[in-house]
Automatic annotation (TrEMBL):
Residues 19-94 form the Transcriptional repressor Tup1 N-terminal domain. Its main location: nucleus. Residues 114-129 have a biased composition (Pro residues). PANTHER family: F-BOX AND WD REPEAT DOMAIN CONTAINING 7, WD40 REPEAT PROTEIN. Residues 223-245 have a biased composition (Polar residues). This is General transcription repressor. It comes from Coemansia thaxteri. PROSITE patterns: WD_REPEATS_1, WD_REPEATS_2, WD_REPEATS_REGION. Residues 155-167 have a biased composition (Gly residues). One of its GO terms (cellular component) is nucleus. WD repeats lie at residues 359-393, 394-435, 441-482, 483-516, 535-576, 577-612.
Amino acid sequence: MSNVYNHRQMVPSAPLSSRVTELLDALRAEYDSLNQETSSMRMFKDEYDQRVSSQLNEIQAVQQSLYELERAHHKIKQQYEEEILRLRRELEARGGPPVPPGPFLQQPQQLQQPPMPPQGPQQPMPPMGPGGHGAGGMPPGPGAMYAGMPPGSAGPHGGHNGSGMAGGPPPPMGGEPHPGAYMGPPGPYPPGGGGVPMSAHGQPLTPQQQAAGLGKDRKPNVMTPTQQQPGPGSMPSRHTPTQISRNASSVAVAGGGNKGVVTSSQLADMDPDSVPPNLKREGADWFVIFNPKTPRLLNIENLHTLDHTSVVCCVKFSHDGKYLATGCNRTTQIWNVATGNKECVLADDNAPKNGDLYIRAVCFSPDGKYLVTGAEDKAIRIWDVQRRTIRHVLSGHDQDIYSLDFSPDGSMILSGSGDRTVRIWNLETGAEMAKLVIEDMGHKDAGVTSVAFSPNGKLVAAASLDKMIRLWDVASGQPLQRIDGHKDSVYAVAFSPDGQSLLSGSLDKTLRLWDMGRYGPSGSSRDIVQCRTTLHGHKDFVLSVAYSPDGNWILSGSKDRGVQFWDARTQQTQCMLQGHKNSVISVALSPTQACFATGSGDCRARIWSYESLPSPV
């Protein structure tokens, strides 16, 4: 025990304070090292942030420069087009030979302002597409429809164009998008897309359907200006039509078919500067040319121009003629016809918030209490006009709603959709009363583009993409006849006020008048509907047709940007109106007044008056 004790006493031990000092020195040295390393990293971070900020500023400056260059390019290009057109017309006016159009005149278009530059340096520059627009040549989005749409063609109802009915559809076709808000579908192509456009059934679209701006992934019709592929009669960038032939005003009636084909005066080809004053009427941004081969019976004036923020897909008067409803992206607007003032805006707060939602069809009830609207979300909304509230939302269609009509007694609603069905609904309950299905064409696309009740409410007519018009009996729901005659999709159908005739408009650029035979109110010895006359005169797709209340006049709107008045008694063109800068997607005549309305891919609706002149002796 003594030895152990002595051994421990012999082992020296370091003072405690010395060991603590050593540990503290080691910790201090490590702290200093970490502090120096942190300072170095902070300096590196500051330098990196400065470099990134500098690079972002440079990117923003480059974006701004590109934007300014693009604006200058658009301006120079537009000036070049206008100057070339002016020189061409001047040369032809002096008797020179027609000058072949240059590359710009082959694709006339209303140049759109380039998209605004990004608002902050963090936003990347969008990929550029043809014509300096975003990917795919359009701002992200309808069309028109083109609007087109339509809508260039801002799709049928252009075009438009922008635009998804099963297999393709109508309005708008050919519409020029409003700056900053793509009006509808970019035709058959998805935004920024490419590849082969397909129908809703997975089939490639025909060239005619592609031109109309039809597709499954967007609504029909609306194309951007750079996508427009004008037909042979499309208008150049200014409001006057291209002069093709100053002598193209002949009228010829050719035999063939049933009772003949009427070739009207090619008013769309005439130069307004060379037309005598008594055969034209001009406003600040519109003009009318009257047919020199027929007596002038009308005078036309522009009453109101109604600006919208997107393509106007549809127009419809109330039955008392006091109000006009217009359908565009997400909203339906009601206007006072007398003053041109906007009375109200109807928008469903419960509708999907993402993407476009074009109102393709509107229709007032006969008593004016309700307004029914059809949209791209496949729903039909019944609005209480006075309360501005939704009374019913009708669901059942599988594709976009393209056309609506009320029965004459106001108890039923008729709807047509890209899902190949026509449906009849009860206004009071919102219940579906009948489902009329197109099943006679197999897998061929037969989306319904336009529907109408006959004046006596006993018949339903429906136009479709398969070139056909079909009749059904309302009471039984049985199909009565399939009317075949047009060479391309039929986009519009309307009964004459007396129910004796049926009017149709087609992508084959013609209108047709059909005798109703035994289906007319007075009956006939003919068992089937037959074509009485084919009306030629438009230079591009006929997108909308309407009868005047007295049945004497026919109105048609076209992708050629023109509106034509036809004399239903002689089947000749009375006049051609140019007042829109894009496809005329929808036309309507007031039931009570001598006025009519037009809706276009140029984001405008217009109200016009037509005054009857004394008949020449």
